[in-house]
Amino acid sequence: MFLVKYSSGSYDDWYEIAIFVTQSEDVAKAYVEKFNNLLEKWKPIVEEGQNKNRDLEYKKSDFSEYCTIGFRYYDITEINEAKYELIEERI
User: Do the Cβ atoms of 2 and 85 come closer than 8 Å?
Assistant: First the structure.
């Protein structure tokens, strides 16, 4: 079984969020890849918008990619990349 998760915060407030568990490594790998690609795309845009103290400009259709996995734009700056790990199945 594979646990898919991401981390957020840094140093003292660092934590991990479990997203889901799957039996398929391909599913876990595909989700992590999509998550990290979207994060890589949006993180610099959000940080630039915050650094310039102006409204974030984005195409609503593009931003909806992140909304489907449950994040608000200001959450993106705190998120580190997603990963998956092999876990034991308890019966």
Answer: yes
Confirm if 42 and 66 have CB atoms less than 8 A apart. Answer: yes
CA distance 83 to 49: 27
Range(s) of the domain holding residue 39 = 2-86
91 falls within a domain:
no
Write the pLDDT tens digit of every residue in 70-90. Answer: 556 667 778 889 999 999 977
pTM for the model = 0.71
Strands annotated E in 1-67: 2-8, 15-22
Q: Please state the separation of Cα 14 from the chain's center in Å.
A: 14
